[in-house]
C-alpha cells in the first residue's frame, strides 16, 4: 500500500498540471505562421545589387525570399558596361531572373530609375508578379523616357555632362559621394558607397518605354513609397491612379542604406 500513497504536495501538483493541460487543450488556438513572400529588389541608377545589403538580412529574418540582381553595366557587372546597354537590356535582366529562378507572385520593387525597369518587366512577364512597388521611383508613362521628365534646361545639362565626362554615352553620377549623398550622411556608409557608385549607360535614360498593356493590366497590386519631395509628382500620380501609398520622408532617397529597419517595416506591410 505504501507504494500507492502520494503526499499532499504531489497530489496538488498533479491536479494543477492536469487542470492546466485540459485548459490549454480546450482553449488554445493554433498560431498562424507569418506569411512569406518573394521580394525582387531592383536598384536605381549608378547603384548595384550591393545597395540592399542592410535590407536583405532583415527581410530574410522575417521569413521572406530575397533577390537583389544587378543591372548590366553596374556594380559587379560594370565590366559589361558598353554603348549598347539600354532600358530594354535592364528590363530583360530582371525578366530573366524571374523566369530562370521560376519565381511567381513576386513583390517587385524598383528604386528611383528602376521604376522604368519594373514597369517594363511587369508588361513583359505580368503572370509572375503579385505586386509592383515604386520606391521613390519614376512612374513612367508609355512612350516616355526618364530624360523626358526633366525640363529643357535639365535635359541640356544631362546631355552636356554625358558629352564632356561620359564619352558621349555614359552618364556619370553628378553628385559627390561625400557629406550628404542622396540623404546618406554617415561617414562609414559614404566610404562604403563611394567606390561602388558607377556610370549609368545613357541609353537607359533616353530610350522611351514601350508597353503593350499600358498599365491596364490590374492582375497585380501597385504600390508607391515616397521617400523625398523630389518624387512628389510621381507619387501624386500614383495616388490619383489608386496605388496603395506609403510615405517616409526621414531617410532620404537611399533609405535602404539610412533607414533599413523602417523600410523593411513597410515591405512587411506589403505582404
Which structural class do you get from the secondary structure elements?
alpha/beta
Instruction: State the low-pLDDT regions, or none.
Output: 1-32
Number of strands: 8
Widest sheet: strand ordering = 2-1-3-4-7-8
Mean model confidence by pLDDT = 89
Quick one: CATH class? Alpha Beta
Beta-strand portion reads 5-15%
> How many structural domains does the protein architecture include?
1
The helix count comes to 10
CATH H-level homologous superfamily name: Alpha/Beta hydrolase fold, catalytic domain
**Percentage of residues in helical conformation:** 25-40%
- The biggest beta sheet, please? 6 strands, parallel
Listing every helix as H and every strand as E from the N terminus to the C terminus, the arrangement reads: HEHEHEHEHEHEHEHEHH
Cα distance, first to last residue?
Answer: 63 Å
Shape: globular
CATH topology: Rossmann fold
Rounded Rg: 25 Å
- CATH architecture assignment: 3-Layer(aba) Sandwich
Can you tag this structure with a few keywords?
271 residues, Rossmann fold, 10 helices, six-stranded parallel sheet, single chain, disordered N terminus, alpha/beta
Structure report:
- With 271 residues, the protein is an alpha/beta fold.
- Helix content is 37%, strand content 13%.
- It is built from ten helices and eight strands.
- The chain has helices at residues 8-27, 55-61, 87-100, 114-124, 152-165, 187-193, 203-206, 232-240, 255-258, 260-270; strands at residues 38-42, 65-67, 106-111, 129-135, 170-171, 200-201, 221-226, 244-247.
- The strands form two sheets. A six-stranded parallel beta sheet has the order 2-1-3-4-7-8, with helices on both faces. The protein has a two-stranded antiparallel ribbon with strand order 5-6.
- Strand 3, helix 4 and strand 4 (129-135) form a beta-alpha-beta unit.
- Helix 3 (87-100) packs across helix 4 (114-124).
